[in-house]
Amino acid sequence: MSSPDSWNDFLASLQLGQYQLHNYLGGGQFGRVFEASHVSSGDRVAVKVLLPNSELPAIAEFDRERSLLSLLHKSSNVVDLVDSGSEKVELQYGASGALLIDLKYHVLELSNECLEVLVLCRDKITWVERLTLWRGVILGVHQMHLKQIVHRDMKSENCLLFVKPKNITDCKVGDLGRARDLREEAIVRPEDYFVGRGDMRFAPPEFVFAQGEDSPRAHMLADLYGLGSILFELGTGQALTSLTLAPTRSQVTHAFMERQQGRIVDLSSVRKNYKLAFEIFEEELPASLKQHGAALIRQLCDPVPSERLPKKGISLDGGNLSGLEWLLRRTDILIRTVKTEKVKSRRSSLRGVS
């Protein structure tokens, strides 16, 4: 099958294990995600299928995602793995030909939507709602870091929305295909970490300029940039790195070759590229958030990785990640600030009426 639509039509008719596939939800080069139902209970789930023509790195990432989701099972803000398996199915071709293929799949809890959809209509949601959803993403990454797992591909497209009772919407981290368990040996060469593994439109500048490292601290700092980038999306609707650096694969390849020759860009010199972007973000903030919200985005998305951490109180215990409680607290303060300002504004309006 050569076209994506052909694969989608074929897969949507299948039953994999105990799950009947239905509507196509989305996917990428090597995988497809479908809404599905359990044939006995009728429970609705999402089934992620690895295409049988996938390359070896994609197969390794798919298998690793299953392992990581198993380690994170029942984490409140990481999408939950329900089941996983493989199924041999018959693929018809030509007039009478048939080929038996093996399909790997993950069964995941079914979300209502991805955060990217809200980014596109962000003007319809308040800043309290935006920050609350962002806090859910931070909590998910916090839970990952406590288990020594880093995401490495943070963007709104990889964050999933779940509507809970009383119409409360929570946001969870999903798509762990590029994630890494820091307790395990690397499966790629050390130099492959120079440029990262995720979407370059959202990648931290150290990846664009081939200065990434395979260390707990470097991975943590890259995830912090990713979290800041999601906040930037929620504020402006734009991909921060794409806006500031417009990275291309040829540019990244050139930076990689330069590093091999010992020529390394001073990342502090890149700050000027971010100045206008940060000003655009600040303009989108309500008055009560302009000072502290703007300061936080500048910290998290500083081109110099070491500047993304608070000045005090954060350390790596024996090389282990310590979580993101400090960022959760900062976010809680921002949320309370907006709520307090809203109450003050309402009281002021009532006094004016009286």
Give structural notes:
Keywords: ATP-binding, Kinase, Nucleotide-binding, Serine/threonine-protein kinase, Transferase. It comes from Amycolatopsis umgeniensis. This is Serine/threonine protein kinase. The chain has 354 residues and is an alpha+beta fold. It has two domains: 106 residues, Phosphorylase Kinase, domain 1; 229 residues, Transferase(Phosphotransferase) domain 1 (Transferase(Phosphotransferase), domain 1), CATH 1.10.510. Helices cover 42% and strands 20% of the residues. It contains eleven helices and eleven strands. The strands form three sheets. It has a six-stranded antiparallel sheet. Strands 7-9-10 form a three-stranded antiparallel sheet. Helix 4 runs antiparallel to helix 11. The radius of gyration is 22 Å and the shape is globular. It starts with a helix and ends with a helix. The model has no long low-confidence stretch (mean pLDDT 91).
Distance between the termini: 71 Å
How confident is the prediction overall: mean pLDDT? 91
The CATH C-level name of the largest domain is: Mainly Alpha
Radius of gyration, Cα only, in angstroms?
A: 22 Å
What is the count of structural domains? 2
Domain Protein kinase: 19-327
InterPro entries: CC_SR_Kinase (IPR050339), Kinase-like_dom_sf (IPR011009), Prot_kinase_dom (IPR000719), Protein_kinase_ATP_BS (IPR017441), Ser/Thr_kinase_AS (IPR008271)
Keywords: ATP-binding, Kinase, Nucleotide-binding, Serine/threonine-protein kinase, Transferase
GO cellular component, one term: cytoplasm
